[in-house]
Queue: 3 jobs
Job 1
Amino acid sequence: MANITVRYFSNCLKRCTTFQMYIPNAFRSDAPPADNECYKRDTKTLFLLHGYSGDAGNWVPEELSEKYNFAVVMPSGENSFWLDGISTGHQFCTLLGEELIGYIRRTFGLAMKREDTFTMGLSMGGFGAMHTALAYPGVFGKAACFSSAFIHNEVAKMEPGSGNGVANYEYYRECFGEPSQLADSVNNPEFLVKKIKSEGGEMPELILACGTEDFLIEPNRAMHRFLEEQGVEHIYEEDTGVHDMNFWSKCVQKYVPRMFG
């Protein structure tokens, strides 16, 4: 397993940034992967997205990456909701769907095909994983979204001077754009679902999971209902748990085999 940190200049962010990466390309001589069926196909790539107030880091055990032969790319999205913000240097959706994908392809020869390129995220990163896959359905084949902050409908109702316990109105406006226009905006995952359907595009495979004691359970249930109403095939599951790494670790162990096996 190669453990790499890359620092490069991002035109989307107008500054240097870094990402971390794990590549299953080094093995012990006494434990070769020759009998592993996953190594008889191309290495797949997972873009792993952190949550609000987090940073780039690996929360997928390396043994899973090695077992199922997939690289892990961990960018830093700051507190952007992985969206293209309204100010210069805050284009995090474009960073993921165009710039970073291009860099990974040119430099490492990975993520070359849709069927080999997936996203996964928790909380804010769960929103980002789904939104990015929907914004670039020709790039990402699957998205796994855990305890996702599907708060776009809440944000759409915000007015100047409002906010919630996490951040103020100005923050949400920077991330999502003008709240009053969010319903019909590309920053709204529901809008993107309808757009893909109207254009006859191929929907990425979607996996959604949330803990029944999580404070974000109702927005996740609402997204599940929306996808059902739109006739979008997806996996949605609930299990006992709150908004913490214990729940997300269970999700990783459960859904990585479904995605990469």
Job 2
Amino acid sequence: MKTIIKPVYYCDYCKKRYLHKGFAVKHERHCTMNPGRECGMCKLAELEQPDMKELLDKYRPRLKITDTKYTRDIQMGYKELADLQNDTNNCPACTLAILRQLGAAHLTNFDYKSAKQKFFDWEVNP
């Protein structure tokens, strides 16, 4: 039996792991949990990327947070989600990044896959 010890690289934001440092560095730059991230979709669509820290500060107080003994329930209303999408220039990656960093990504009716498809359909056929 052969045992090989290799370095493992972990994302500082989402803890995803890599065996190659270059891939880990590229991932961290665009990670949706990184508050200072670079958005590839905004760059591709030639849109100005919104200030993520400013949006986090704006939407954090608008969440409805209910703590129970075992869980924390975080909710974002339809109006807040629509406002967030408007503030991110309808960029699905920026919207998802804000929702993930707020802890509300899986608790909203935001569908990243369909939003991404709509975004690229519009970019191709404005």
Job 3
Amino acid sequence: MIRKSFAVFSLFIAIFFVGGAGGVFFEHSVVPRLASSKFFSHFAWVKSASENVTIINRTEQVTIREDDSVERVVSQPATAVVNIIAIKEAQRTTRAVADSENKSTTGVLATNDGVIATYRDALYEGEAKYVVLLENGQSYDARVLGTDPLTNLSFLKIEGDNLPAIAFANSDDARVGKKLVAIGNSSAEYQNRFSIGILENRDKTFNLAGKTVSSSEKWEGVFSIDLKNPSDYIGGPAVQWNGEMVGILGAVDFDNGRKYFVIPSNAVRSALDTVLRDGFASRAMFGAYYLSLSKGYSLAHDIARSEGALIYSPSGRTSLALLSGSPAEKSGFLAGDIVTQVNGRSITLDYPLARAVSDISKGASAEMTVLRGTEEKKIPVQF
């Protein structure tokens, strides 16, 4: 009796597991196939069973590994980087003295016909000879096109065709936190060096005048980038991960130290257009020192407006805020005036007074809207 009961129980267990496994197999493998066929899809029990089936897709783990080399990133822009050797003409007769006076700095080909952009530190004051070394091993004599007083960028020209010019990014689209690659070439021989850094900050109120106040004749708004030995990359490009140049490395003496930064590529492009079109002598001059207003500054100093350019000197004296004989002085501006618009365009951190002045040609006139106390005035300015 016990054996018979055990046999029946074992048979029941076997049917349960086999039948269960078969049911699962039938439900998940057979029913979906029946439901997809034209003949069985019309049966209600097949349709109902298929609606209760949940198909679980297999998920594969994909590991994305960042390339540990920047070679792919810089392969194209690196060919546009050049070595600029400056030799003082007065020292060329004595080899020992000449070697000590030579400067080797970085530049970048901005056009295919040989226009080179670099930072002003690459050039000597006075007469000098300039030789440019290219990635292909060739060397060229270069002539100076000029140095932009607004951006501190210098431009040289070599005679060549189909040269590997760098691609310009739209620096207005550059985002804080993105990786950049700086390229330098300032050794005795042509040899590129690289450094990876993070775009730390868009310093919208830093002015290239190197003062605590901004100058209407110096570019305002740079990128901050963390680099090891940034002095090795002055005049060279900072490129994005797609190989486009987001700006050129520069530096000024500031607050008892050396401030390194990236001049945005849109400023480089504007300076390039100016030197090729009219030259830098065509730039207008306003002649004022100012502070770009921000929400934080206005709240801290109880200023009603949070945008605009505050004509300013630390002493509060107008004579120290305006250059003598400048268009700003002749037009009657006063310390404490807030320039809110130039030719109808609002002055903001993204469009500071220095940039607004740079858009005006020498000899032209403009209308500036000014807040003086609580009164708004429109002042015509002849540049």
